[in-house]
């Protein structure tokens, strides 16, 4: 019994010595902030249980395009999760990751999907239900700037996709939905400024 106790003590000491402290940097886009706060904690606990190693994951969040530029310019990211394949391709083109990254994992290396929602004034007084409602007289739209926000690009592409799948012929659809929809923009909002009031995968409709 005494020998077992000594051996167990030595095993604990050995495990403690071998355990490593690991720091990782997760570079991602703004809407994933809360998601990865929870996921990273769960992963760290799981890794600790499996290996004994202590993993601390730091997070960096911003517009997807800006985050891609940060990685290209040399930020030492260990994990990169961005809004658009376009942004990941930009990193791959600079040789930071394999150019065939999209084939590395199932579902084109996209672990999750999202959707676009409309945020309207209380009671929805203008009866905004679909994309074609955004070009009604008296309707104004707020969305983040697609030059710096990946989510904002999805907003634009969702409007474009809606136009392509309606029953009108393609060319008139693009003219009668996309351009007028852009004309109803009240303003582009900076990604960080928009975060408290709307998801970056949301279009805020004013009236």
| The level-1 CATH class of the largest domain | Alpha Beta
The helix-strand sequence is: HEHEHEHEEHHEHE
List low-confidence stretches: 1-16, 168-178, 187-201
Mean pLDDT: 75
Main sheet record: 4 strands, mixed
Structural class: alpha/beta
Q: In which order are the strands of the major sheet placed?
A: 4-7-5-6
Per CATH, the superfamily of the largest domain is Periplasmic binding protein-like II
Number of helices: 7
Strand content: 15-25%
Coarse shape? elongated
Beta strands, count? 7
If you had to describe this structure to a student in words, what would you say it looks like?
- This protein is α/β, with parallel strands linked by helices.
- The chain has two domains: 13-109, 3-Layer(aba) Sandwich (D-Maltodextrin-Binding Protein, domain 2), CATH 3.40.190; 117-206, Periplasmic binding protein-like II (D-Maltodextrin-Binding Protein, domain 2, 3-Layer(aba) Sandwich).
- It is 42% helix and 19% strand.
- It contains seven helices and seven strands, in the order αβαβαβαββααβαβ.
- The strands form two sheets. Strands 4-7-5-6 form a four-stranded mixed β-sheet. It has a three-stranded parallel β-sheet with strand order 2-1-3.
- Helix 5 runs antiparallel to helix 6 (170-183).
- The radius of gyration is 23 Å and the shape is elongated.
- The model is unreliable at 1-16, 168-178 and 187-201 (pLDDT under 50).
